[in-house]
Amino acid sequence: MQAGRTGYSNGRGEPKLLAALSERYTRTTGRPIGTDQFLCLPGTQTSLYAVFSGLVATGDAALVGDPMYATYEGVITAHGAKAVPVPLSAERGFRISAADIEARITPQSRAILINTPHNPTGAILTAEDIAEIGALALKHDLWIISDEVYEELVFDGATFVSPLAFPEIADRVVVVSSISKSHAAPGFRSGWCVGPAEFARRLLPLSETMLFG
Fold first, then answer.
1. Cβ(50)–Cβ(207) below 8 Å
2. Whole-angstrom Cα distance, residue 99 to residue 109?
3. What's phi and psi for 96, nearest 5 deg?
4. Which sign does the torsion angle of CA 136, 137, 142, 148 carry?
5. Residues contacting residue 11 through CB under 8 Å, at least 6 positions apart
């Protein structure tokens, strides 16, 4: 307050934060990710809620691995959609299977929610896993929402891969994350979503209605 920072923020997020996120994701994905592809929100939870409010409506469905994080069903069903569980098997190391996803796709399906590294199993999707899921998304015209809040929490020798790094599916991928786990800072409520610039542009009015800066 003494610094005079008492006005509304930019609806997308603080400029320095947006620049830092753009630099980070450009570096980690190996392709340009602009500041216009982000919306900064109070943590991964709010990001998931906002993203699903933009992608699903009453009568729609979203597919999600089971077991799943406690709030996933809520952020989907809050908008009138159905959360369709996709069983995760120990035989596959609890990595969600494209074949199991496809078996549960219906005309009502709009999105696939993945979480890598996965809570609660710790499973990390491989590049092959993501390529197969991406092929499904293209085939059935689905969005991929990737919760990557645990991205930094991997053992030595393990490799994290984001669907955001695959140019062929980038126009239908939205990643959500935050500093809650990577920086052990959940109380800061600093999170974001990143996806196609057009998606971010269309979701911005909703974000501003929810948060007003």
1. yes
2. 15
3. -60, 140
4. positive
5. 204, 207, 208, 211, 212, 213
DSSP letters for 129-194: HHHHHHHHHHHHT-EEEEE-TTTT---TT-----GGG-GGGGGGEEEEEESTTTTS-GGG--EEEE
Helix axes 197-211, 43-55, angle to 10 degrees: 110
What's the pLDDT at 9?
86
CA dist 176 and 21 (Å) reads 12
**Nearest CA-CA partner of 176 in 147, 144, 133, 197:** 147
Residue 212: the pLDDT is 86
- Note the pLDDT tens digit of each residue in 46-56: 999 999 999 99
Ranges of residues in the chain whose predicted pLDDT is under 70: none
For residue 63, give the 3-state DSSP assignment. strand
pTM over 0.70, yes/no: yes
